[in-house]
Amino acid sequence: MSGIDSKISELLAAYDFSGEFAGETAINDGHINGTYAFTFLLPGGKEKKYLVQQINTGVFKDPIGLMENFVSVCEYLRNEVTANGGDPERECLTVYPTREGKPYYIDGEGGFWRCVNFVNNAYTVQVIDNPETFRKSALAFGKFQLMLAEYPIENLKETIPNFHNTVSRFADFKKAVDNNLSGRADTCRDEIAFALAREKDCGRLVDMIERGELPLRVTHNDTKLNNVMFDNETGEGICVVDLDTVMPGLSLYDFGDSIRFGASTAAEDEKNLDKVHFSLDYFKAYTEGFLAAAGRALTSNEKRNLAFASKLMTLECGMRFLGDYLNGDTYFKTDYPEHNLVRCRTQFRLVKEMEEAMDKMNETVEKICEELGIGI
Ligand code: GN1
Ligand code: MG
Q1: For the chain, does the N or the C end have fewer beta carbons within 10 angstroms?
Q2: 356-363 long-range CB contacts below 8 Å, 24 or more apart?
Q3: Count of domains forming the chain
């Protein structure tokens, strides 16, 4: 992707921004797209911000289809938020059209851009330091799932096919090991063996889908903690962002991916593994929030697999990081050569600790279901 500096004048001409351009700041929360806050000065001295994003078209191969999903989901959520008496400027995203009336802008070099509202007076969290924040993120993701429960699933394109199909993720991983395009396989034999030993886990949910035992729902599919914006004043999770992978999926994917990222005592790329632990307390807090918000809509099979899905999503993400390391870092943004390997190691540490805690995790889910009176 090309840098932002050379694109600013083109973007300023493409969109009907209000006020006088005062500068841009990169927002480095994500590993895929390029995200920037553009600030404008309004007459009278007030500021207005917009969120401008360059879509990674190496990852999202059909960006126009992606934007069709995105616009439609945003409009649907806007109606839901408004109907619930919420503030759509802060509780959902709105796509700003270009001067030509398109929901995206393609620059002179083929770069693909979009612009949405900037959620003011809000912040993101990278590592959980208290269970309450994690519970609040769970309420936000649970509510998000409920708001989309009636969205016509057949309207959604798969923006990345087989995104959480762990059988196909495992096959991709094996291919990365066999091809060893980077020549790095010898530097990560233990990690490769760790993943290969868990092939059986990869089929469990996919098999259940095939047998009709788990319902496909409209899901977010990238429920990282930093994809929730928290209100500066109340600390509540007010807006779920990063809607590029809203697709048919399992509620278990959303639950599991949140646990993967948030129920860890350290950052996803912590180098010192002594600091990386799975926290049962954080798991409990998230489960309480998620089940309080969305639990009544879940089937028994879903509830019974929440703990397993947490491990599976963590294993999947670790395999993806390791596969990318073996392929030569072509997918995730990296800051240094071993970055993907470091990320893989934190994920596998968490997988190991979740395996040890699996009985306790399942007991925790059962107990919370009981307390909420929703059965399991
Ligand atoms: C990517 O863009 P971001 O950072 O929210 C990735 C997720 C991974 C995550 C790992 C489209 O999400 O699937 O779980 O990194 N998104 C895509 O941190 O591949
Ligand atoms: Mg993100």
Answers
A1: N
A2: 357/278, 357/280, 357/283, 358/307, 358/308, 358/311, 360/280, 361/280, 361/283, 361/306, 361/307, 361/310, 362/304, 362/307
A3: 2
